[in-house]
UniProtKB/TrEMBL annotation:
It comes from the Bacteria. This is Sirohydrochlorin cobaltochelatase. Its EC number is 4.99.1.3. InterPro entries: CbiX-like (IPR002762), Sirohydro_Cobaltochel/CbiX (IPR050963). Keywords: Lyase, Metal-binding. The keyword Lyase applies.
């Protein structure tokens, strides 16, 4: 297993249909970058948790983990909850390098894509 992994981190939901888009992003990463391990993780309401997803990736050989907050903005979860979780991960896995990206919704490419989608005319 390559030593750099990605964790897509989201809020979570009891509804399995809610997780489908997140899992589709993970599947696309796996397809486009088969050498890059990827996992989904959730703050609450459904497994796996961030610590569980990271532990599995570390057990498989990951030595660098990029956490991608799959939020539209940097709200409380990305601003307060995630840093605490990452601090705990760093303490639990001191030999692993953790990086945290900005919330995906704050990336100008995502903003442009959402605007493009919003402006599409509905199919007849």
């Amino acid at each position: 297993m390559p030593d750099h992994a990605i964790v897509l981190f989201a809020h979570g939901s009891r509804d399995p249909l809610w997780r489908a888009p997140m899992e589709a992003v993970a599947a696309r990463i796996a397809q486009q970058h088969p050498d890059r391990p990827v996992a989904c993780a959730y703050l609450e309401l459904c497994p796996p948790t961030l610590p569980d997803a990271v532990a599995q990736l570390v057990d498989q050989g990951a030595r660098e983990v990029t956490v991608v907050p799959m939020f539209l903005g940097t709200g409380k979860h990305a601003r307060e909850d995630l840093p605490v979780l990452v601090q705990q991960l760093r303490a639990r896995h001191p030999s692993v390098r953790f990086t945290v990206q900005a919330a995906v919704g704050e990336d100008p490419r995502m903003t442009a894509l959402m605007a493009e989608i919003a402006c599409e005319r509905p199919a007849a």
